[in-house]
Amino acid sequence: MTRSRRPSLPFLNESNATLQSRPIRKRDPDQPSLPFDPMPSRIEPCLALLKPAVPLGSDWLYEVKWDGYRLAIHIEPKGVRVITRGGHDWTDRFPTIAAAAKELGVATAILDGEAVVLDDHGRSDFGALQRSLGGRGGKRASTESMFYVFDLLYLDGHDLTGTELAVRRHLLEDLIPAGDGTIRFSEELELPAEELLAHACHHRLEGIIAKHRDRPYSSGRTGDWLKIKCVESQSFMIVGYEQSASARGGIGSLLLAGKKGFDWIYVGSVGTGFNARDAEQLKKTLDRLKTSRPVVPLKGKRFVFVQPTLIAEIEFRGWTDDGSLRHASYKGLREVQDNAAVFDMAGFGS
Predict the structure, then answer these.
(1) Whole-model pTM?
(2) Contacting residues for 343 by C-beta, under 8 A, at least 6 apart
(3) Active-site residue 65, yes or no?
(4) CATH number for the domain whose boundaries are 232-338
């Protein structure tokens, strides 16, 4: 029986290329007779290492880089848990994803993927996802979000982390229903590797993820997974803002810093990417964090300095010669539960 192919993502089918993982082997129907592995309460996620170019070779598979919140979905006999990258339980924040996971028809599983909100073109929009959750520190449940799942770490009593990625994804593809449901399989991109990044950037995606097909699941940044971005995006600490009587919400720009050891290094400001409502909320929050002792050596009549507490995700086009961000744009605040790391300036410019 020939397996039906999944529909292509709307922004990746210009060349009629199909997006489908390669089947490696059929799932063993006798697996239940094998010894069971205890289900872990949490698995530290495998993280992608940033690289400037797409790696070439048949031992790599490629996926869209989704721009959202990394989550692990734990399906257990007693229910479903939605766990953030930092290990926090956010089941109540993603109720539609949790409900969809209950309908997958498995007794136990751990799914690794990204919660996203899509725009009208099918692209993930980090700002829209954050707004659906009520902003940083908000308590709203996101009903607009969906979950792109790209790895399967545990299934029906069996720990799969020691199995090669290609097999894990083959089992995962059997598990996730085709179509436009709340939980979707993150398809493999089967365009020529040399064209992938240009194609992704043309469609204004964040970038590409490359993964070794034959590697087990390893926590941390081991180099088994790589990320190649169209536009750089990093997390920076907000250390103040510039007041403006004419700008929306009273904020002309946010003052940003990176981390270097125990010190903060000023990397410039960002004045685009937030609307009046965002600016008003930011100002209220930042005004509660005011300090007379700035953590970076800056002076300005309109500068208001704050304690280094809020982490902003910033999109930018590179660096100036003096170490400032070029063409920076604000994307949103990172949650503490998202375990975002402030950009490390150690070794920068060397």
Answers:
(1) 0.69
(2) 234, 235, 236, 258, 259, 267
(3) yes
(4) 2.40.50.140
